[in-house]
User: What shape does this take?
Amino acid sequence: SQQGEEDPQALSIQEGENATMNCSYKTSINNLQWYRQNSGRGLVHLILIRSNEREKHSGRLRVTLDTSKKSSSLLITASRAADTASYFCATDAAGTALIFGKGTTLSVSS
Amino acid sequence: DVKVTQSSRYLVKRTGEKVFLECVQDMDHENMFWYRQDPGLGLRLIYFSYDVKMKEKGDIPEGYSVSREKKERFSLILESASTNQTSMYLCASTAGTGGRNEQFFGPGTRLTVL
Assistant: This one.
């Protein structure tokens, strides 16, 4: 039961550019989270945004949430080569368990 | 430094073998999860546990079982491994209930079934 769908599937940018990835989901949520995964590794939590929040910042990350459109976006500003990874959104529609999307693969070249 | 560890990074097994994947967390978390990750399919939940000896099926439990005898340890068992269970297996844990807290992931086990 895939809930979140990230868009685009893949994104290639140059260092210094901004990267924007989007997540759409189907049912009402309490929270939405974004995770990052370096190749062949486990996921690392980036940021959590609650359903009553519209925007949240953490360092170079900016997350927005539009519950009326059932969508979220993750913006990474001034991208670096080290940001190369896959990014996943996850929603809590299933209760205790999160439902992850299929991810956006970001490639940042120097 | 919080940590989720998995018993193996890489594992190669033969069809029909019984396979145990172990996961240990040191954060005293109530909830633990097993996912598998395949290209193009993202993460899919196999099983999760919200307390010792308690378990819930996820989206794809067929062919798998789990065991949670101690709070810190959650095991995934492939009773009779098959080639379609070749995948990356990820364990995670979280405190509290619902999706209000972040999940902490282990490094993953890449299982190949020949």
About this structure: Chain A touches chain B through 29 residues (CB under 8 Å). The first strand of chain A starts at residue 5 and ends at 7.
